[in-house]
Automatic annotation (TrEMBL):
Pathway named in the protein's UniProt entry: Sulfur metabolism; dibenzothiophene degradation
Protein's name in the database: Dibenzothiophene monooxygenase
EC number in record: 1.14.14.21
Gene Ontology terms: biological process: L-leucine catabolic process
Organism expressing this protein natively: Labedaea rhizosphaerae
Limits of the Acyl-CoA dehydrogenase/oxidase N-terminal domain: 28-117
């Protein structure tokens, strides 16, 4: 691994335990924080930031040690993406999605595919992107004998334009889904660079056009002799994505409070017209009350999220055939609870930080609004009201959430 840019950090030696990996992620966050606000304004493609993730070893933290990977658990990987997200929600999202797609062969693949793809990406330190939005139904997959041919369009191809490998989803003529992994520079893949949203501006989440993209049948994950055998374990992929989002939101909110606190301590002026004048803003009672509220809420959401991280991680590292629908249901409702809670508290916190920083904090040069914009943008991925309903049905009726593309 190379030296970290911008800071004199030696990343030649890989961390050996979860605590050391978390410390490494904090170093990455320090590097990203240096120009996070400027990059958010520019909205440029995060090629250099993906390289930082690679140099730091975070890309292969889930890879097997015999392939040069970190050999860590999903509970650790989720904490790493959360830490990165405190500095840059866009890069945190890309890292989390990379972990999801790098695990795709575990979710869906044959044992041979698992061995092949995991060794390939780990040894070469490859980064994943993907275009698998299930609401896009216009990618057709044609069986040409030994190969597959993909045509159509996908929106939200997050990270693909800055990745090495891309996960694609389409539909075979008989209605079966095809999840295919291809090189990101495969002929026929066109990145439209049309991502122009108010938040998560560096995720390269624009659309992708596929024109006669050719892939071998061996790239269709889970298929053997053109047949596929479903497992309950397959559906953990959707829960993992939801928990990645949940950790992303926690990281964004934590980053907002950290940056707001630094600004309040160093720049915010006390209010001189309240009849209880203080020498510094840090002594203002209403400011202390607000930060106490922020911290209490984030400690509570972090405790819930950490517990759910452990619960899902145990299933993800279990024997695939052993995972039951009952186990899936228990963790699904807990993820829904954690996600809806951090969305509500996170949006409140990223709005209220301006109350305790003051009017001058709205200057564009600080970019403090990016925390709210990032959280508001990504939390619309699927309606939070449905997460609340899932928890409500469990509490009132004892029913687990129905498996879907979003649960």
């Amino acid at each position: 691994m190379a030296l970290a840019p911008a800071l004199d950090l030696d990343w030649q030696t890989a961390p050996r335990d979860p605590a050391a990996w978390l410390a490494r992620a904090r170093q990455v966050a320090e590097v990203l924080a240096v120009d996070a606000a400027a990059r958010d304004r520019a909205g440029t493609a995060p090629h250099e930031q993906v390289k930082i993730l690679k140099d730091a070893g975070l890309v292969t933290v889930l890879g097997r040690p015999e392939h040069g990977g970190g050999g860590q658990s999903w509970a650790t990987a989720l904490r790493l993406l959360r830490e990165v997200s405190t500095a840059d929600g866009s890069v945190g999202q890309l890292l989390g999605y990379h972990y999801l797609w790098a695990w795709a062969v575990r979710f869906f693949g044959t044992p041979e595919q698992i061995d092949e793809f995991e060794e390939r990406y780990t040894r070469a330190n490859l980064f994943f992107g993907g275009a698998i939005n299930p609401r896009d139904k216009d990618v057709t997959v044609t069986d040409d004998g030994d190969t597959l041919r993909l045509n159509g369009r996908k929106s939200f191809a997050s990270g693909s334009a800055v990745s090495d490998l891309t996960c694609l989803m389409g539909t075979l003529p008989d209605g079966r889904p095809a999840f295919v992994i291809v090189d990101s520079n495969t002929p026929g893949l066109v990145y439209n660079h049309d991502w122009d949203n108010m938040g998560q501006r560096q995720t390269e989440s624009g659309s992708m056009t596929l024109t006669d993209v050719i892939a071998p049948w061996s790239a269709a994950i889970g298929y053997r002799d053109k047949q596929i055998a479903p497992l309950v374990y397959n559906s953990l992929s959707l829960l993992t994505l939801q928990l990645i989002m949940t950790n992303l939101y926690q990281g964004i909110a934590e980053g907002a409070v950290a940056e707001a606190g630094e600004y309040t301590r160093t720049t915010t002026r006390p209010w001189p017209y309240g009849g209880d004048n203080k020498e510094s803003a840090s002594e203002e009672w209403y400011i202390l009350e607000a930060y106490g509220d922020f911290r209490s809420k984030l400690w509570a959401t972090a405790a819930l999220i950490d517990a759910v991280n452990d619960e899902l991680s145990q299933l993800l590292h279990a024997e695939r055939e052993s995972v039951t629908m009952d186990q899936r249901g228990h963790v699904a409702v807990r993820i829904s609870a954690a996600k809806q809670r951090i969305i509500k508290d996170g949006l409140e916190i990223t709005t209220r930080i301006f109350d305790v920083m003051g009017a001058r904090s709205t200057s564009a040069r600080y970019g403090f609004d990016r925390f709210w914009r990032n959280l508001r943008t990504h939390s619309l991925h699927d309606p939070v009201a449905y997460k609340q309903r899932e928890v409500g049905r469990f509490q009132l009726l004892g029913e687990f959430p129905e498996p879907s593309f979003y649960t």
